[in-house]
Design brief:
With 420 residues, this protein is mainly α. It is built from 18 helices and seven strands.
Length: 420
């Protein structure tokens, strides 16, 4: 090695840093967008935008508990740190009061703020990129009609290097392409409407698709299920009738579940109950039927066969005793409920699917279907997490997953501890 070698290495390193800086600077320049039409914000357009905001469940993230609607501040926990939702009210200093419809379209379709900053995909612009310009303009009109709220945006608390624009440039290069929704000409208009809502504003893949180590989902429709980061809930596969697929349901029952959060074939709890309460329960019948039709058309993909290893006899005996004491009164001694308000557990998909996360989550924290017009007084399940240990919850879950002909795997106390 000569004396010049370290100098050459340093020069190369500086060159790489400079090239990376130029790459990031270029990637964060404002994406040129075709100017939209000069749309007048009529009452009809604002009303349509409000409907679309409910379809996208925008308030769920952009409204902090106890805060003003759409004023932001709510923390979204991710494996990389916490992202705080932004203020969407038309306040000129802290909200989007200075944004025009083109700025809003750029954020929705390209994931880029008015000042050029790349947005974090906790804001699901990979899904929202499918939203049409007309719908984007209606959403913008609705947000501009809200009372302005002066609420400064909170700084994200992400770990290095995820807190850098360079990391976002790399992520987008690998995983993001702003493709609009393209109707399938072989399908009827109703099916295409359902696909557009499900894949776009509904952003159903944000939960029901598996994510890689960097938090990205596939670009193509994928509803094979996935663990919801940081929440302890599993979003079951919509491609499998053994999990949450509705391919073999009557369409009216699919509509009822999306509208009311409860039906003869199941009920929503946890994150999906929040989606029904804040979004799908407010959609019109035509859109619900379109979404149901699309979901019914998803190709069936069988999930991996669950592990059938059973718990130790002692654990099963403990689980049986706990079931008789805590569960049988509502769910029946043999797992068959005599009351329509309480689900039977025999063959219940939450009990039998490969992931036991939702079963354990409900035993720990209880759960209620959402309160909706079609189900104004929902019956719920009380929590048992305060009175049962990890070992007891594991034993109870293992028992119901193995009783009455079920062949699902055992649950270990360590799994319960992780979900807690």
């Amino acid at each position: 090695m000569t004396r010049r070698t370290p100098l050459i290495a340093a020069a190369l390193l500086l060159g790489l840093v400079a090239a990376a800086a130029l790459w990031v600077r270029h990637a964060t320049q404002l994406v040129p967008v075709e100017p939209g039409p000069n749309v007048k914000h009529t009452a009809e357009l604002v009303e349509r935008g409000a409907y679309l905001a409910r379809a996208g469940n925008c308030a769920a993230c952009h409204t902090e508990r106890g805060g003003a609607a759409y004023a932001g501040g709510k923390g979204i926990d991710t494996p990389f740190g916490t992202v705080y939702a932004s203020n969407l009210t038309p306040d000129a200093e802290t909200g989007i009061g200075r944004w025009n419809a083109d700025d809003f379209w750029r954020a929705l379709h390209h994931g880029q703020s008015r000042d050029g900053r790349l947005l974090y995909p906790a804001f699901p612009y990979p899904d929202y990129a499918r939203v049409t310009r007309d719908d984007s303009d209606a959403l913008h009109a609705f947000l501009m009609s809200l009372p302005p709220v002066r609420e400064p945006n909170r700084t994200h608390t992400l770990r290095f290097p995820y807190d850098t624009q360079a990391a976002l440039v790399a992520w987008r290069t690998l995983f993001f392409s702003p493709e609009p929704y393209r109707p399938d000409t072989t399908q009827p208009a109703e099916w295409n409407r359902g696909a557009y809502l499900t894949l776009g504003l509904g952003h159903c893949m944000a939960c029901h698709a598996p994510r890689n180590a960097l938090g990205a989902t596939a670009n193509e429709p994928d509803f094979s299920g996935g663990q919801i980061p940081m929440q302890g809930w599993y979003a079951p596969s919509l491609a499998s009738p053994k999990e949450a697929g509705v391919q073999d349901w009557p369409l009216d029952e699919v509509v009822r579940l999306l509208r009311d959060g409860h039906g003869e074939r199941g009920a929503t709890m946890g994150p999906m109950a929040e989606v029904v309460a804040g979004s799908t329960s407010h959609l019109n019948e035509a859109d619900l039927r379109a979404m149901g039709l699309y979901l019914q058309s998803l190709p069936v993909v069988e999930p991996p066969a669950p592990d059938t290893e059973t718990a130790e006899p002692q654990a099963l005996a403990l689980g049986q005793r706990l079931y008789a004491a805590k569960c049988a009164q509502c769910h029946g001694e043999n797992g068959v409920s005599s009351e329509p308000e309480f689900p039977s557990l025999v063959g219940h998909r939450t009990v039998t699917m490969a992931s036991s996360a939702n079963l354990v989550r409900v035993i720990i924290g209880g759960g209620f279907p959402p309160t909706t017009a079609g189900n104004p007084a929902p019956f719920g399940m009380p929590p048992f997490g305060q009175e049962l240990s990890d070992a007891e919850i594991a034993a109870l879950a293992s028992y119901v997953r193995g009783a009455w002909g079920h062949m699902a795997s055992r649950v270990l106390p360590l799994e319960v501890q992780k979900i807690r």
